[in-house]
Specification:
Blueprint (H helix, E strand, L loop, with lengths): L3 H34 E5 L14 E5 L25 E5 L7 E8 L4 E5 L2 E4 L2 E2 L3 H4 L16 E2 L4 E5 L9 H4 L2 E2 L3 E10 L5 E2 L2
Antiparallel strand pairs: 1-2, 2-11, 3-4, 3-11, 4-9, 5-6, 5-8, 6-7, 9-10, 11-12
Length: 198
């Protein structure tokens, strides 16, 4: 005959073990999703207004450009390469403890110039409503009037949509491809702001 105290103790141990296993599995899955698939970020400043405003919570697609394997410089295969107009999250080149969000304006090997509020690529104005619907100010060492900048190989020239209030490539230069974390996909909070990011 089984002692009721022993049976009760065994049931408690089994329940605790099941909960511990469930929590461990959930944690491992969450880490895999966060590392390789999708990560949440919160917008702290108005540098991307009106596309993104302070307090927006967004989801970033990390596998589209090839997620980075932690503690290495190895990336998984990309679905596609970063394109002009993509809103990207990246590790800030001048302080690797910070993540920034900006829009790609110029690609590797292109010559970029800001003139009369427009972006010129290889001496031609950009025809892309994500970019040419905004006014860009001539500011910073890389954004002076009359200055043409060649984007180095495997790097990107990025700008904030709110050009009057954005610390971007005009001031500090280029974003190395290795610093890319992913493409901003959707605003998921607050509910009144839920939408795809374009």
């Amino acid at each position: 005959m089984i002692n009721s105290k022993t049976a009760k103790s065994s049931n408690i141990k089994a329940t605790v073990r099941e909960w511990a296993e469930s929590i461990l599995i959930a944690f491992v899955l969450a880490m895999i999703i966060r590392t390789f698939l999708v990560q949440a970020f919160k917008i702290p400043t108005g540098s991307m207004r009106m596309t993104l405003i302070e307090g927006d919570a967004i989801l970033v697609n990390k596998f589209i450009y090839g997620a980075k394997i932690p503690f290495t410089d190895i990336r998984l295969p990309a679905l596609r390469q970063p394109a002009r107009g993509d809103v990207i999250v990246f590790i800030f080149p001048q302080d690797t403890k910070k993540d920034f969000i900006k829009r790609i304006a110029a690609l590797p090997g292109e010559t970029v110039e800001i003139k009369n509020g427009e972006i010129f690529i290889n001496d031609k104005p950009v025809i892309d409503k994500k970019i040419n619907s905004r006014y860009y100010y001539n500011r910073g060492d890389y954004g002076d009037l009359g200055k043409k900048i060649v984007v180095p190989e495997d790097q990107y020239f990025v700008l904030g949509d709110n050009s009057a209030s954005s610390q971007d490539s005009r001031y500090w230069g280029f974003v190395p491809k290795k610093n890319l974390l992913g493409k901003a996909m959707v605003i998921y909070w607050p509910p009144s702001r839920i939408r795809l990011i374009e």
